[in-house]
Amino acid sequence: AEGVFRQVSELTLEQLRNNRETLVNVLSTMRHDPLVEWSKRNAKEDTTGERDSQEADKEIEKIELKLQGVMQLRGPTPLSVQAQVQQLINDATDLQNLG
């Protein structure tokens, strides 16, 4: 089962990476949508929308880095598709993350 899961995960991640620019553009347009809440905080905290905009920019940047294979705590060197899928599987099955 892991073989099929890994293969599908690698193919999916490869397609996401190939379409990274399009995905980021879609997310960027959502940045201006007042119905999209980019943080877990109460939306009433900041009526100017400036904080929402900054948080949206940070979230989009994180997503773009992940689509490039840059894992947050692993350093600036991008991982291959296969290595990133392996790291995601490791993180998802790590007992410390599950507890």
From TrEMBL:
Listed GO MF terms: protein serine/threonine kinase activity
Domain PI3K/PI4K catalytic: 1-82
GO CC annotation, single: chromosome
One Pfam family this sequence matches: FATC
Compartments reported by the entry: Nucleus
Annotated keywords: DNA damage, Kinase, Nucleus, Serine/threonine-protein kinase, Transferase
PROSITE patterns: FATC (PS51190), PI3_4_KINASE_3 (PS50290)
SUPFAM superfamilies per record: Protein kinase-like (PK-like)
FATC domain boundaries: 77-99
GO term, biological process aspect, one: DNA repair
Nucleus listed as a keyword: yes
InterPro entries for this protein: DDR_Repair_Kinase (IPR050517), FATC_dom (IPR003152), Kinase-like_dom_sf (IPR011009), PI3/4_kinase_cat_dom (IPR000403), PI3/4_kinase_cat_sf (IPR036940)
Gene3D superfamilies: Phosphatidylinositol 3-/4-kinase, catalytic domain
Annotated region described as Disordered, given as residue ranges: 39-58
UniProt-listed PANTHER family: ATAXIA TELANGIECTASIA MUTATED ATM -RELATED, SERINE_THREONINE-PROTEIN KINASE ATR
Name of the featured protein: Uncharacterized protein
Organism of origin: Haptolina ericina
Top-level taxonomy: Eukaryota, Haptista, Haptophyta, Prymnesiophyceae, Prymnesiales
